[in-house]
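request received
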Amino acid sequence: MSQYVQFGAFLITVPNLIVICAMIVVFVAGLILRLPGHKQD
Amino acid sequence: MTKSNWTLALRQWISKRFPSDQVLPDEQPAYVRSSLYLLGAGTLVSFAIIILTGVILALFGPQWWHESAVGHFVNSLHFWSVQAFFFFMALHLWTTFFMGAWREGRAKTWMIGVLAFIVSILTAFTGYLSQTNFDSQWIAASAKDLMNSVGVGGFFNPLNFGQMYTYHIFVFPAVLAAVIVIHILLVRLRGVVRPYPARGEQREPYHQGMTQKQYFRGVRMAPYDLVREITIVGAVVLALVLIFAGVFSSGDERPLTLQSVAQSDPVGFTTVSLSELDGSSAVAGYGQPYNSATGATQALGPISFQQLAGVTIPIDTAQVYVYGPLATVHNSAVQAAIATYKAASADQQSKWSTAYSDALAKNTTEAIDANGNLTLPAGDYGPLPTMFNELLANARSGAMDGILLAGSKFYQTDYTKSLLFLNESALPDKADAQHLAGDQWGMMNEPGAYPGQAWLWLYTAWYQVPAGPFNGPNADVAVAVVMLILSATLFLVPVIPGLRRLPEYLKLYRVIWRDHYRELEGSNRPAPLERPAATPSRSGQQ
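response:
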């Protein structure tokens, strides 16, 4: 059974929390990083 | 060739409607520089892995993925590719929202994309029901209430494995593949949307019906290799899926059976059986589509879609769960007991039932004697001990699982009767212990330490609201209506005033296209144009 993290009245499993955090990290990384191999200058 | 040549006409139509240099472009606007542009490709290759692993799983069948190590690994690949698919698709959705990607004639592209998201949820939902493990049982038992509440449970029945399996491996994937193809073609044929115009920027004004060439006039183009990009993204996603499947595997908890419940909890099994006989069970008092009771019927104001849909899966609980299984027993004492019970008055039946139920409640040790009969204190239970000890033996042998599934037939894939019985007590007890209940974000969770259906959070969140319509007798229909409205809102973002301009105010697009804006600010000359600039279109839906 998964471990849980509690936010007020809400519980969320650690695996789900990891996925949500990973989505945010990947989105921010995507904002920062440029497409590899696209030398346009 | 003549005009009557249909083949030539088709070829000309295809080449005109789907120019190869647009479907498979070798250059892209220079503003396409953010890595976020890869998320669509990530979604697409994840879908390809899902289809590939799904076809293999379907060809070999459920036994293979439950009992074979190779089968379970392919099942794990399927699971993690689904996780990757939703991961990338949700991020792709965020990205295109912040880009306002529906602008300048791309509303249909957005709407088709949202449709793909919704069909994907349905596909994944039926996939969870098709796992044929404990997770499937619990999700089916939980989801039936929502389907029944909106009146579709009779023909979209989560408890019917065969039906859900067909939806999962054929109907929804076929629809999803078609929707994805249309989405990609729209993206390719219309081209990637231009950044929001910078202050003072001059550019080709958008007008409906303009060609891609006209749309990109004045836009600096850069070399682009679509096939190479898809291949590299595909390799990376495949590697990630392989690693996750190899390292973390996937959950596959054995399903409950009537046999396992009768063996592990004979008192609980008999208590539920008794409630099925005397009509006090949840199913007996449920309502449509199983009977005409009102215990679980839901309504939206004065309208009950559930009642309007009628009794389409009739279940007489006494007959299905007690008389039917006992009719297969060739034991004169048992048949005589049934005859005695049926011949008794309702008042007498109620007295026996109450006494027997009270005695069962006191048997907290699950005690059974050497003959497999429940050990109960002496009392006036009438014929009930004879009937229920035989029913218990029937279930403990595994016979009742087969009887409820197939009846007198041989092939059967509809587990409605078995799951409704298990859902009286055994399923919710086990699910609650694993934090899978509705008030525990249950639909998002997965047994074991695996990520669940995080993309369903907006659906499950409403069940967490402690008051109001989401926590009352009509909770499911209330959630269904709210989600219908929210899904429609997402679908219609391009035409909803205010909402469609939200990305302009959030200004995250300034980060996504920062090179483009820097380039514009760095040059003191206006973008080359062949005619004077006009006010840029900000909506331009088609």
